[in-house]
Amino acid sequence: MVTERAASRTAVIVCQGRAAAHGRLAPDRFADPTAMPLLRAEEQAQVHLVRRGQPPAGTKPRLGYEMIRASAEIMVPRTVAIDDAVRAAPTEQVVILGAGLDGRAWRLPLSGATFFEVDHPASQQDKRDRAESLDGAPPVFVPVDFARDVLTDALESAGHRADAPTVWVWEGVVPYLTRPEVTATVAAVAARSAAGSRLIVNYQSPSLVSDLIRKTMSAVFRTTGPWAGEPWRSAWSPAAMSRLLALHGFAVRADNDLLTVATGLGVRLSQRSTLKNSRVAVAER
Ligand SMILES: C[S@@+](CC[C@H](N)C(=O)[O-])C[C@H]1O[C@@H](n2cnc3c(N)ncnc32)[C@H](O)[C@@H]1O
């Protein structure tokens, strides 16, 4: 197991997006009361500016502000689509892959379900420190580097049951993995998925516009930006994702882009192309 890399910074940006959106965007369908408490004081201060609509002076602070504002727009449809798919499949075990600062284990009322959170060891340690203030039972933490560790063994050791159905949540992680890493992770998930399991996967479809936006942001923030150590490594067309899942016994039941979900929620949108290329697929075994 490898721990030399730093805790994920993209996990903080998406958590800031959820904190900025909570109670403000689509409040009848989206809520994440765990997001703000999972942030550190200086990260909360940035969110408060967005919530108040007060852009700070200076180019870099302003870009940081815009990043959180944009993240909020993406997080609302992404969270709603995934939460709906989790709730629709009553289960005794939920595994969140690449959990980052996801608060589902604390906020989703799935009575009797055991939550497992799988994440890179550095990100997971950071989460454990931050989550101390949250009320409720914590999940079972399973430190795993998808690029190097054996997910099946780690889950077995953590008490996950391969003979009972699992709901898998894989949100905001696939773009950061290479194609072989994604393929190996799907194989591991399949190996521990009893009949009746559900895999909910969020991924990016290929897009020149999204690539350009991403590269521009990386160039502006260079070594200090959240993406400096977390480049995007793979994009999947819906057909390619469906083929990969089918190869491992998962049939795709739904696969929607977030622009469609956001439009349905009535969220006012400023970044249609990013939302159009982010997708949530729900597959069953
Ligand atoms: C953008 S964050 C998303 C976090 C969370 N799923 C969410 O949507 O709020 C990306 C997450 O992927 C995890 N991740 C990226 N590469 C990984 C790897 N090789 N092994 C384990 N986790 C990884 C990071 O640690 C981080 O928690």
From TrEMBL:
Which key words tag this protein in UniProt? Methyltransferase, S-adenosyl-L-methionine, Transferase
Keyword Transferase listed:
yes
Q: Which GO terms describe its biological process?
A: methylation
Instruction: Enumerate the Pfam families for this protein.
Output: LCM
What is the enzyme's main class? transferase
The enzyme's E.C. designation:
2.1.1.-
Transferase among the record's keywords? yes
Classification via InterPro entries:
Ppm1/Ppm2/Tcmp (IPR007213), SAM-dependent_MTases_sf (IPR029063), SAM_mthyl_Trfase_ML2640-like (IPR011610)
For this UniProt entry, the molecular function terms from Gene Ontology, in alphabetical order, are: methyltransferase activity
Top-level taxon of the source organism = Bacteria
The signal peptide, as residue positions, is none
Function comment: Exhibits S-adenosyl-L-methionine-dependent methyltransferase activity.
By sequence similarity, the record places it as follows:
Belongs to the UPF0677 family.
Q: What is the protein named?
A: S-adenosyl-L-methionine-dependent methyltransferase
Which source organism?
Answer: Paractinoplanes rhizophilus
